[in-house]
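ingest -> validate -> predict -> emit
validate: passed (alphabet ok, no gaps, 153 aa)
predict: started
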Amino acid sequence: MALPMTLAELYEAGDAWLADCSAHPDRVRQAWNAEALAPITTGEHWLVAESRVSTGLPAVARIDEEQRGPVLVDAYGETAWWLVSSQAAEELADVRQLRVQTAGWVLHCPPLGVMVAGHFWLWRPDGSGHLNDPAVLAAAFAPGGRRLRTEAL
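emit:
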């Protein structure tokens, strides 16, 4: 009788991609095996645009499913982290609800499908490297929260 797949197996591609974004993928996997958050330094593969959950959730509703990139949430700290391209800081500089962390900042990540210390993936990395588009994020956080459709991009 085959055992059911674990959450780690279900999300293997996303976990592998996320771990490979670290300079030390083995340390990331060790942290996850110990049911701890893994520190992943930003900059080489992506940056983080940080928002409050209370302002991020309305923006979430304005982003079409096919445009969604990875978003990590800290349920206890009321913070959401949107993974964006390494060039996104300038494009998001005028979005007052977002603060783009500089390269070298550390994001503490759980594996996909698991909540660790209140951190969970609202939208999971899929393993492809797809990130949040800064134009879509800016539109979603804009006053009035207009929706920017794929065709407009």
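The CA atoms of residues 14 and 139 lie 26 Å apart.
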